[in-house]
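**Paired protein data**
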Amino acid sequence: MESCYGTRSFPQLIDLPGAWHGNQFSDESEYVYNLSSQEVEEIENALCHFKALGLDGDLICRQNFPLPTVGESLDLIRLDVHEGKGFGLVRGINPLDYSAEDLTMMYLGVQSYIANLRGRQDEKGNMLVHVVADNSSNLSSQHHRHSTSEITFHNEESGDIVSG
């Protein structure tokens, strides 16, 4: 039966780069980008540049977090995230080497090359949240962000960047 939305049957095959099975990515080189020490240094320099501007972290963007070399690689990841397989992984920044504030700004700076918008994560307007187990209150029963329990498959309203 036809409706204004087309047929009601689901297609037998979706032949697009974003339609895949996990076993297609057994080789990490297909989705992991390992930063070189020179690229990490470039990100550190961009961090220093941004901090010298005296702006709030939520104002980080490509224009004020300059990555002339790394930016080209991040553009390729952006293209793959938005028009290809839908995901990518950037490795190479050791979190033990930086303060939480610097890590957050580095994260936002790198992120600004992959996605130009940040979605709100909660009703308070937070755009960056930490996923932590919290058994000290009833938070764990309210949201999977605070739980160690497995969550069912779900789809976010906007894309997510998850860091570990």
